[in-house]
Design goal:
This is Glycosyltransferase involved in cell wall biosynthesis. Pfam families: Glyco_transf_4, Glycos_transf_1. The structure is a single chain. The protein has five domains: 209 residues, Glycogen Phosphorylase B (Rossmann fold); 156 residues, Rossmann fold (3-Layer(aba) Sandwich); 65 residues, no CATH class; 125 residues, Immunoglobulin-like, CATH 2.60.40; 143 residues. Helix content is 26%, strand content 27%. The protein is built from 20 helices and 37 strands. The strands form six sheets. Strands 27, 28, 29, 30, 31, 32, 33, 34, 35, 36 and 37 form an eleven-stranded mixed sheet that branches. It has a seven-stranded parallel sheet with strand order 3-2-1-4-5-6-7. Strands 10-9-8-11-12-13 form a six-stranded parallel sheet, sandwiched between helices. Helix 4 packs parallel to helix 5 and helix 7 crosses helix 12. The longest helix has 22 residues. It is globular.
């Protein structure tokens, strides 16, 4: 069967996109054809990696300098999407035309809508030969009454409606009685994890989702603050971005949790982040389903969740694989967190049950049910309305022509590219079915030869842009080993004979080559890097083929869980100094490694602030023991402040910075001061930093509050505004070294 899904914006992120992608991938794995029609395209490529067998067709391209962006019809209001639908204002007369044109022309056997407004469009305009399916990813109480009236009007043309929970199916039947419409439950699916499950011995609570008021992360942070009092050493990580980031950061500072609660930002792949935790936390006011709950459970994390409508209670078995708490009970939520955090045996039992119970959400199982339902309806439909025969590949209306660029045996969706092919030869190639077998490299070489025409130049640019995207490079997984070395895993199909990984230092141009060897199971090849193999710096990772050609690697799964617990978890052997390598994804999507190699190092473990001092606890890695510390002013006016380094009973060295002494030395309105420990017997000074950590860029993640000194400043050397206020704040540099900034601007 051929399935066509109509979605709002497949190029973004969100639960609906992930759910659709999981279902679509399972369908193509089962041998079906899948096409995803994205009403909007706002980015050059999808945020999630999409199986190349899935054809993505953007209907309206609103990227910069695209004709659709300035099309006057895009400024006229939509009459297809109801005015009270949540995203009505995003739609227009142009989107109406493209949606209707696509639905009327599709040759799919099954046409699926994915939100109320699009479901209504499917009901009204999908062809008679196709099975019409409405997927409801929103809960019924979030659908406006006017939209429900439209549903009652048009859903008699819908063959099958799906909700993601049983409770929502019951609400659909009672609130929207639609004669003849079959209503079933199809939960969102989560694929089998590509990494081993969490080991459960960390002291990290993990939450993930957009930073939105409905997620109530403020409640989670407050509850964690209460639970952490009785659970020393635990931290909370919140993954995601959104409008509440600043407000949550302010709450963290206000509660003094700056060294325990971290806003980690968004991750493309959460699987390698869940496994760093021991407990998953959900604090939402409502969840239409709870995809993050399933993902966490599949990776062996028990879940503490608010018992919010409607998803969590249908996923979590209270007391077996997690705990459910009434949504308005902050004390109860804190108590539930405390219970799971304190009891290692309970967490282990719940983790085992979580893995077993979440297997029912496997995409293959749910896609099989979905396909069987659709096949049953399709057989009935074909008995009455046979599917029209098509003798030639059609061209979609409204500028939906597919791209001339081919990759992996399938056409790339690029609706505007064909219009740019004015060169006669390239245009002939573009319009021929043989284009499917033309590689990007071949077209690029041909375009370079025929560069005399302006249209050919535009095509060259489009090809180079597409060819340079990280999505087109070879992919590797990377694991940080217990000895802090690295192991890469690459699909054997992408590894030519004699292949190797090549790491190049961006600054020194040093090159390290690591051979690829077959794994024990055959489908993948492995490359292992010793912990002492790299000097300090940032390294780009390439795949080297047998002909000496290098290609930048893309990361898929970066498993750095061994570093997530910091030095307290004993990841460092008895080495002199410190060597650690951290794989990460660059801003342009490629694989790189940040390496630190120091003969002596002071690893920051805690930073504590009060109104009079900054206290830093660090672990010493190196010969002897430090005999003191110093703060040094950065820049062309050097100054130093000598500090004591006091050994503590837990094996750390404690440094206290008196703020009065520091601010008395300042000469400017903005000064940076760097921390050092002094080696014994007149040895070199050693920078303090946080290297045994899985965060590459700590500036946003480690957000220490400013200490504001309320006393007035008397500084003769600097011309001042009236009554300036001194502010002092510790921070990590781009190299993860600890510094302090002193500011006296109002």
């Amino acid at each position: 069967m051929k399935f066509s899904f109509l979605i709002h914006n497949f190029y973004g992120v969100g639960g609906t996109n992930r759910a659709l992608l999981n279902l679509a991938t399972a369908l193509v794995e089962a041998g079906h054809q899948v096409e995803v029609a994205s009403v909007f395209r706002r980015l050059d490529r999808t945020m999630f990696d999409v199986d190349r067998r899935i054809v993505v067709v953007p209907l309206v391209d609103t990227r910069p300098r695209r004709p659709d962006r300035t099309n006057p019809r895009h400024r006229e209001p939509s009459t297809l999407i109801p005015e009270t639908e949540e995203l009505h204002l995003a739609y227009s007369r142009l989107t109406d035309e493209r949606i209707i044109g696509y639905l009327r022309s599709t040759d799919a056997d099954v046409v699926v809508g994915t939100r109320p407004g699009l479901n209504l469009a499917v009901a009204r305009y999908a062809p008679e030969h196709a099975v019409r399916v409405a997927q409801e990813h929103m809960t019924q109480d979030l659908i406006d009454d006017a939209v429900k009236a439209e549903i009652r009007r048009y859903y008699p043309r819908v063959d099958l409606a799906y909700t993601v929970t049983g409770a929502d199916a019951a609400a659909f039947r009672s609130d929207n009685p639609v004669p003849g419409t079959r209503i079933e439950v199809l939960p969102n699916s989560s694929p089998p994890p590509g990494v081993p499950p969490a080991e459960g011995d960390s002291r990290i609570v993990v939450a993930a989702g957009r930073l939105d008021p409905i997620k109530r992360y403020d409640r989670l942070i407050s509850a964690f603050a209460r639970a952490a009092v009785d659970c020393p050493g635990w931290t909370l990580r919140i993954y995601g971005d959104g409008e509440q980031r600043q407000a949550l950061a302010a709450l963290i500072r206000e509660l003094g949790l700056y060294d325990q609660v971290r806003l980690m930002g968004r991750r493309d792949d959460m699987s390698t982040e869940w496994v760093k935790g021991a407990v998953a936390a959900v604090s939402s006011e409502r969840e239409s389903f709870g995809m993050t709950i399933v993902e966490a459970m599949r990776l062996g994390l028990p879940v503490v969740s608010t018992d919010c409508p409607v998803g969590p209670r249908e996923i979590i078995e209270d007391g077996a694989d997690g705990l459910l708490v009434p949504g308005d009970d902050l004390d109860g939520y804190a108590a539930a967190l405390r219970t799971v955090m304190r009891d290692d045996d309970l967490r282990a039992r719940m983790a085992k049950m979580a893995v077993a119970n979440s297997a029912r959400f496997d995409p293959a199982h749910l896609a099989g049910r979905f396909a069987a339902d659709c096949a049953e309806l399709l057989a009935t439909r074909r008995a009455g309305t046979p599917r029209p025969r098509r003798t030639a590949r059609r061209t979609l209306r409204g500028g939906l022509t597919r791209s001339v660029l081919a990759r992996g045996g399938g056409l790339l969706p690029e609706p505007d590219l064909l219009r740019a092919v004015a060169d006669p030869l390239l245009g002939a190639i573009a319009r021929n079915e043989l284009t499917r077998r033309v590689s990007i490299g071949a077209l690029a070489r041909l375009a370079r030869v025929r560069r005399v025409r302006g249209a050919s130049t535009r095509l060259q640019k489009a090809i180079r842009r597409r060819a340079s995207l990280a999505a087109d490079g070879p992919v590797a997984d990377c694991l940080v080993l217990p000895d802090l070395g690295l192991r890469w895993s690459v699909d054997a199909a992408n590894c030519p004979p004699g292949g190797a990984l090549v790491l190049g230092n961006r600054d020194t141009r040093e090159v390290v080559q690591v051979p690829l060897v077959p794994s024990a199971d055959g489908p993948r090849q492995l490359a292992t890097l010793d912990a002492d193999a790299l000097s300090e710096g940032r390294w780009n990772v390439h795949l080297l083929d047998g002909k000496g050609v290098r290609r930048r690697m893309r990361p898929q799964r970066l498993d750095s869980r061994i570093l997530a617990g910091g030095p307290d978890d004993g990841v460092v052997a008895d080495w002199p100094g410190l060597r650690v390598h951290l794989p990460y994804r660059t801003t342009d999507g490629f694989l790189a490694v940040r390496s630190w190699a120091r003969p002596a190092h002071a690893e920051v473990r805690r930073v504590e602030l009060d109104g009079e001092a900054i206290t830093v606890a660090a672990t010493w890695h190196g010969p002897g023991a430090p005999d003191g510390a110093v703060l040094r002013r950065r820049g062309d006016r050097p100054e130093s402040l000598a500090l004591s380094a006091v050994p503590a009973t837990d094996g750390t060295v404690t440094i206290v910075v008196p703020l009065d002494a520091l601010t008395d030395l300042r000469l400017g309105r903005y000064e940076d001061w760097d921390f050092f420990l002094r080696q014994p017997a007149g040895g070199a000074e050693v920078r303090l930093g946080r290297f045994l950590d899985d965060v590459v860029d700590k500036k946003r993640t480690y957000n220490y509050p400013e200490i504001q000194l309320t006393r007035e400043v008397d500084l003769d050397l600097v011309e001042e505004d009236p009554a300036p206020r001194l502010r002092v704040r510790p921070y990590y540099t781009i190299d993860s070294e600890l510094s302090v900034v002193v500011i006296d601007r109002p």
